[in-house]
Amino acid sequence: MGRKWNNIKEKKASKDANTSRIYAKFGLEIYVAAKKGEPDPESNRALRVVLERAKTYNVPKAIIDRAIEKAKGSSDEIYEELRYEGFGPNGSMVIVDALTNNVNRTASAVRAAFSKNGGNMGVNGSVAYMFDATAVFGVTGKTVDEAIELLIEADVDVRDVVEEEETVMVYAEPDQFHAVQEAFKSAGVTEFTVAELTMLAQNYVTLPEDSVAQFEKMIDTLEDLEDVQQVYHNVEFEE
């Protein structure tokens, strides 16, 4: 389980290093979620998930409000949710989730990011079956036993509750995101260090030293693409 947390932490730290990029991506994701349903998080569960995630990245309220107001307006921008799957060196696997208003542009850019950095795109389903969609929460101020007790009292099913690096980590099915969130909030927890809907690899690989830099460049290139929202992989980096 530690590998899961390490990969989330590594990805989150990488994204935090470029706040303008992460804010822009959240702005689009909030707009799309609000546009698909009511622009009110109380009645739009997808929007509530995005807003809870945005809090852990310290996305400014002005950006959130602007995206929601845009969704309330007359904007007719249509974005498609796309998933690409591919391979890097030495058995590494990558999933790329995108929001785009130009499918051809996005597909071309993602394909180029793979091919120019030693990877190649696969067909749909070639990689995703090796990952599990997972709701992940990080909580401080609670012990593992306290977290388990409050989740049981709230009748919430989770996969695992463990302590890692002074943080209680909760792993659950994606459809339990709100249930886990509400269970902790009812117990007085108002802030989460991690609140994600993510894809966690079932098995991780460590790359040979001569492949690490190329793989990292591929991931960085993918994450820098305007249309890409999330990049998941099964590589565990040496500390």
Automatic annotation (TrEMBL):
Residues 3-73 form the TACO1/YebC-like N-terminal domain. Keywords: Cytoplasm, DNA-binding, Transcription, Transcription regulation. Gene3D superfamilies: 1.10.10.200, 3.30.70.980. InterPro entries: Integrase-like_N (IPR017856), TACO1_YebC-like_2nd/3rd_dom (IPR048300), TACO1_YebC_N (IPR049083), Transcrip_reg_TACO1-like (IPR002876), Transcrip_reg_TACO1-like_dom3 (IPR026564), Transcrip_reg_TACO1_YeeN (IPR026562), YebC-like (IPR029072). Residues 79-235 form the TACO1/YebC-like second and third domain. One of its GO terms (molecular function) is DNA binding. GO terms for cellular component: cytosol. It comes from the Bacteria. One of its GO terms (biological process) is regulation of DNA-templated transcription. It is found in: Cytoplasm. It holds the Pfam family Transcrip_reg. Belongs to the TACO1 family. YeeN subfamily. HAMAP family: Transcrip_reg_TACO1, Transcrip_reg_TACO1_YeeN. This is Probable transcriptional regulatory protein BCM02_10875. It comes from Paenibacillus methanolicus. The lineage of its organism: Bacteria, Bacillati, Bacillota, Bacilli, Bacillales.
